[in-house]
Amino acid sequence: MARVLRKGEISMSREAIGLLKAGRNALHWSQEDLAGKSGVSSRTVKRIESKAEKIRKEALKELGIQDRGAPIRRESIEMMLSALEKAGVSFLSNGREARMSVAVRSQDHAFFDIAKKVIGK
Fold first, then answer.
1. What residue stretches are annotated with the HTH cro/C1-type domain (predicted)?
2. Is 30 helix (H, G, I), strand (E, B) or coil?
3. Residue 36 class from Cβ within 10 Å (0-12 exposed, 13-18 middle, 19+ buried)?
4. What are the Cα distances from residue 30, in Å, to 4, 10, 27?
5. pLDDT averaged per 10 residues in sequence order, the chain, 121 residues
6. Are 81 and 91 in contact (CB under 8 A)?
7. Which domain holds residue 47?
8. Coil, strand, or helix at residue 2?
């Protein structure tokens, strides 16, 4: 039987966890950097991003239990997203898909000229 989410917990999909990790990586932050800037423990960041999630999913499948995602404290996610937003990472959703954008200060004009051509803007 699947674990029931407790008050204050949310379930995150692999894709949502991937966006969180991509935001951290876009800023060149380590897991410890994100933990320090958000006020959550580095253990929490590591647990959310860990490969243990894959093992958990495989075990649930073998037991015939429906996977509802990793239960995570909502407050921890809010703290991490807030730290990423303050550093220039934005997460957007229209209900069907989610996107991430990163505001960076760069003098690499050639890169941005190519990027504009590639995305057609």
1. 20-63
2. coil
3. middle
4. 31, 24, 9
5. 67 81 92 96 88 63 68 86 92 84 76 82 58
6. yes
7. 9-119
8. coil
What pTM value is reported for the model?
A: 0.68
* 3 domain-assigned: no
Alpha carbons 121 and 115: distance in angstroms, whole number: 9
Distance CA 91, CA 72 (A): 18
CATH number of the domain encompassing residue 52: 1.10.260.40
Are the C-beta atoms of 5 and 61 separated by less than 8 Å?
Answer: no
Domain count, the chain: 1
Identify the helix (H) or strand (E) that includes residue 9: strand 9-12
In a domain, 4, yes or no: no
* Residue 87: closest CA among 38, 19, 40, 31: 38
Residue 1 belongs to a domain: no
